[in-house]
Amino acid sequence: MSASDYPWDAWSALWPTKVYFAHLSLSSLVSWFRQFAYLMVESDRRDIKDRDYLGFTLLKQTESENYQFVQGIFAQKDSEVYNARVIEASSVDSQILKAHDFGKKELVFWS
After folding, report:
1. Cα gap 43→111, rounded to integer Å
2. 56 or 102, which is more confident?
3. What residues are paired with 74 via a beta bridge?
4. Are 3 and 106 a contacting pair, CB within 8 Å?
5. What gap in Å lies between CA 104 and CA 43, rounded to an integer?
6. Which of 12, 17, 82, 91 could make an S-S bridge to 73, C-beta 3.0–4.6 Å?
7. In whole angstroms, how far apart are CA 85 and each of 45, 46, 104?
8. 9: helix, strand or coil
9. Which among 6, 9, 18 has a CA at the least distance from the CA of 84?
10. Is the per-residue pLDDT at 92 higher than 50?
11. What's the predicted TM-score (pTM) here?
């Protein structure tokens, strides 16, 4: 299932934190990920397949030209999302868009 097919309301139901940005910057994403640094530092230098926790963003551009993201921490051992937040933004930093291949790549893992 692609992000565009995913029921976005389900993310909001599971992770009720929804944040709105006029402009979503890379530093905003990094700041949120830093809250979970204690989980990811331990496994930071291993191959991505061997890491216990992975930071990710899932992108969807809405019909209203806004962007919706799910930003989260995925626990590989448990095969579930450890924590996440839903983000809506009017514009997005070019580095974030580049990581998502300008909308062609829905899911990105951050290290």
Report:
1. 10
2. 56
3. 54, 81
4. yes
5. 28
6. 82
7. 25, 26, 22
8. helix
9. 18
10. yes
11. 0.81
Q: What one-character-per-residue DSSP string does 25-74 give?
A: -HHHHHHHHHTTHHHHSTTTTS-GGG-SEEEEEEEEE-TTS-EEEEEEEE
Check if the beta carbon of residue 48 is closer than 8 Å to that of residue 54: yes
Cβ atoms of 55 and 33 closer than 8 Å: yes
- Tell how many helices (H) and how many strands (E) occur in the chain: 4, 5
Give the model's pLDDT for residue 3.
47
Written as six digits, the tokens of 27 are 């530093």
Give me the pLDDT at residue 4, please.
46
* 8 Rama sector, left if φ>0, alpha if ψ -120 to 50, beta otherwise: alpha
The one-letter amino acid code at 6 reads Y
* Amino acid (1-letter code) at residue 110: W
Q: Which two tokens stand for residue 23?
A: 């402009």
Tokens 């709105």 identify what position?
20
